[in-house]
């Protein structure tokens, strides 16, 4: 859930997407690796188990129903409900399936960077890495700001000036230090944050049941209110996106060939349920002007349904959700840089880990510095451009997936999407069409900034080659990244 970027699921429930059966191979089979320590014969502990991984994926994508409200404002109740019912089939499930297959085929840090590099070579691996890193870290900058924005309701001094700037600075450093302490702590913190931030919505949905009028679910919206399809589709897109981010942590997962697919599919179901139940409850129980359905309306709805105590609980949950979002996405950014260094795309020092916590401290530090710099800017167009280049990265990711199926049909895939190539093409074309639509409605400013970011990414690739040729920096050869 990236509510800040908008100016802005298992009991055979028919509202929950069904998933293809898992076809997992034995974990004892030889798999490609990308960690330098493993290549050197050292044992690297893989500490992320199933439950923490599920919640890390959940926070990569959603973090709760916070931010789904603009879909009602933009399209009306019926279209909002249909959007969150249908969109997982055309976007979330294809992206999760591709992530499951490629993360188990290449279970190393770097994720989608490895996939693009293996499919099309180092240039495209570097381009993918630049696109995804820029989009992720720029988006990451919004979370401390959003956290302080929620807190200012209780502490008005944080509304502006140096107290606000200092609070953003301190909160960013504290949250980054938590990430530095290791994925085990971050993973179990995500479990706690997820349960606590979702609990007020469980209470609200139960209290709302006697007050629900089902006919409100069928409303197309108020008469005279024009549909804002740009806001509608962007709301769906950013609430159900980033399933592939967790692939950059694959090298840290215990028994990845079994854990990864199960975690991804569990997170899909969990995420869809967390969006749909509160949406059905609030739409059915609360009658207000459609224009009031902006980001944060769930807190207002909680007060209408149960009183101020539940409103405060929802607002506290929103702060905890933002913390979980920050931790999950900072982990992905830092381990992506580590994986790129192990591939030889970035200098070797990016793969250095903390002696105390075994975390990629260079990646955490760089991501934190950029986050701090961007968090003080008026960056609406920059975020829109980051979303645009993320879409470019996703098109490259779909292409890499299809090309690897064609190029390396015998590659060991412990989880394999149960389709032949023609079916996979259709699987990828549908979400790709949606990406093209999102990009087509972008503004001229977004095209310009995205173009400059892409040119910068290309220049960076050749600059890294220059540094390698002149031995200005040490690079890993990447030869330990093997494939069957």
UniProtKB/TrEMBL annotation:
Q: Which UniProt keywords apply?
A: Cell membrane, Membrane, Symport, Transmembrane, Transmembrane helix, Transport
Q: Which residues form a coiled coil?
A: none
Please list where the region (Disordered) is annotated.
1-21
Please provide one cellular component term from the Gene Ontology annotations of this protein: plasma membrane
Q: InterPro entries, per this entry?
A: AA/rel_permease1, RMV1-like
Q: Where in the cell is it found?
A: Cell membrane
Is the keyword Transmembrane helix in the record? yes
Report TM segments.
Answer: 48-66, 78-98, 133-150, 162-180, 186-209, 262-286, 356-376, 382-404, 424-442, 448-467
What Pfam families does UniProt report for this protein, alphabetically? Answer: AA_permease_2
Q: How does it sit in the membrane?
A: Multi-pass membrane protein
Bias (Polar residues) ranges: 1-15
> Does the record's keyword annotation contain DNA-binding?
no
Q: Which domain of life is it from?
A: Eukaryota
Output the Gene Ontology terms for molecular function: polyamine transmembrane transporter activity; symporter activity
PANTHER family cross-referenced by the UniProt entry: CATIONIC AMINO ACID TRANSPORTER (PTHR45826:SF8), POLYAMINE TRANSPORTER PUT1 (PTHR45826)
Query: What is the similarity comment for this entry?
Result: Belongs to the amino acid-polyamine-organocation (APC) superfamily. Polyamine:cation symporter (PHS) (TC 2.A.3.12) family.
This protein's name:
Amino acid permease/ SLC12A domain-containing protein
User: What does the organism's lineage look like at the top?
Assistant: Eukaryota, Viridiplantae, Streptophyta, Embryophyta, Tracheophyta
């Amino acid at each position: 859930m990236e509510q800040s970027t908008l100016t802005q699921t298992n009991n055979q429930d028919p509202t929950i997407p069904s998933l293809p059966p898992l076809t997992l191979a034995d974990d004892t089979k030889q798999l490609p690796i990308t960690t330098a320590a493993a290549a050197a014969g050292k044992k690297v502990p893989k500490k992320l188990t199933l439950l923490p991984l599920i919640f890390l994926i959940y926070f990569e994508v959603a973090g709760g129903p916070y931010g789904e409200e603009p879909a009602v404002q933009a399209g009306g109740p019926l279209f909002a409900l249909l959007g969150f019912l249908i969109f997982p089939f055309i976007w979330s499930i294809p992206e999760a399936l591709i992530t499951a297959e490629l993360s188990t085929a290449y279970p190393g840090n770097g994720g989608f960077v490895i996939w693009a590099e293996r499919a099309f070579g180092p240039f495209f691996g570097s381009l993918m890495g630049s696109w995804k890193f820029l989009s992720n870290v720029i988006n990451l900058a919004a979370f401390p700001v959003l956290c302080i924005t929620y807190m200012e309701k209780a502490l008005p001094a944080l509304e502006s000036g140096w107290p606000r700037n200092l609070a953003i600075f301190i909160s960013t450093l504290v949250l980054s230090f938590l990430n530095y302490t290791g994925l085990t702590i971050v993973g179990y913190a995500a479990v706690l944050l997820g349960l606590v931030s979702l609990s007020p919505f469980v209470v609200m949905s139960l209290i709302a049941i006697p007050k629900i009028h089902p006919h409100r679910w069928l409303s197309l919206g108020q008469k005279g209110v024009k549909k804002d399809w740009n806001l509608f589709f962007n709301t769906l897109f950013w609430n159900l996106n980033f399933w592939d981010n967790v692939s950059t942590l694959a090298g840290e997962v215990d028994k990845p060939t079994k854990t990864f697919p199960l975690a991804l599919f569990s997170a899909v179901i969990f995420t869809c349920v967390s969006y749909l139940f509160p949406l059905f409850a609030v739409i059915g129980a609360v009658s207000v002007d459609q224009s009031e359905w902006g980001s944060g309306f769930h807190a207002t709805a909680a007060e209408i349904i149960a009183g101020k105590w539940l409103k405060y609980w929802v607002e506290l949950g929103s702060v905890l959700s933002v913390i979980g979002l920050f931790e999950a996405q900072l982990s992905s950014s830092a381990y992506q840089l580590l994986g790129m260094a192990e591939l030889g795309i970035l200098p070797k020092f990016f793969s250095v880990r903390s002696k105390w916590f075994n975390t990629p401290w260079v990646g955490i530090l760089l991501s934190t510095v950029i986050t701090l710099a961007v968090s003080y800017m008026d960056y609406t167009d920059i975020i829109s451009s980051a979303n645009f280049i993320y879409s470019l990265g996703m098109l490259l990711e779909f292409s890499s997936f299809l090309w690897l199926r064609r190029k390396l049909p015998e590659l060991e895939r412990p989880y394999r999407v149960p389709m032949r190539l023609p079916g996979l093409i259709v699987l990828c074309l549908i979400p790709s069409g949606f990406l093209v639509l999102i990009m087509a409605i972008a503004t001229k400013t977004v095209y310009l900034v995205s173009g400059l970011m892409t040119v910068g990414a290309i220049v960076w690739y050749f600059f890294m080659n220059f540094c390698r040729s002149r031995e200005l920096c040490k690079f890993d050869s990447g030869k330990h990244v093997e494939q069957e």
